[in-house]
User: What shape does this take?
Amino acid sequence: MIDASTMRGSAMKIMAEIEGMLDRPFRIIATAFCFAVFGLGGVLILCFVFPCLRFFYADLQVSQQHARRIIHRSFKWFVRLMEVCGVISHEVRQAEKLARTGLLIVANHPSLIDVVLLIALIERPNCVIKASLRDNVFTRGPVRSAGFVVNTDGPQLVADCVASVRSGDNLIIFPEGTRSLTHNGALNPLKRGAANIALRGGLPLTPVVITVSEPMLGKGQSWRDAPRKRPHFILGVEDDLPVTPYCAALAEEKLMSDDAADGGAAAGEALSAASRMARRLSRDLSAFFAEKITRQGADAMSADGLPRQ
Assistant: This one.
């Protein structure tokens, strides 16, 4: 015989499904509205705000810092707009760990709005962005005025990133290089860029684990592909991961290669050692994220797109 609690649970589940079906068309419209506001805001900032910054602040670095502060506050307001419109809900765990400067922040990338959520959280934000965003009509204004690091090939990218963190910026990197193919925690293979930056600069990594209850704006998804329920994002800020052991192992390998070879052979062996250590760090980082995503993902799924109390 079915007890009353089981019947109530089944009824609540059915009602939630019906509510989600009725709510979805509204969220599609709300998402379109938010995207329109985002695009319009980007154009207005490009045409009016940033030219004023360049006029009043001749020093490029001062102008860029003001531009980043404006982007931070604008994104904070935009996240609030999405929540008010019912497009998303989100929570941040241990946010106080981001209340510092000079951080090398690494995060997984399940959604297009991950970077918006992170920049809204972080003072003095900087990030590594695709070259295409520098030329996009809606994003080139903020990207160029803020002086965000453009993801181009070559050692200069690593040097620019290390310099940014050492200057006090909080640099955001998505080691996957692109959005995850699925929202359920399956990572893309990590690229070695973040590891190379950490090893070159001796910089600890500050991981942010991002999970979402429903797929939203993932790889290959349009804004029209609104999920059944309001997605609930959880951003979990983890303890810093020191890279000192990796740097020490790398220094030892280089010392051994110097003793075994001379000239060009030694230089080549040193580069090979750095590459091996970057692969090792990336492999360990991937395992770390996989474990944390699995644990945190269960919490995101249980939220059912509703904010926690």
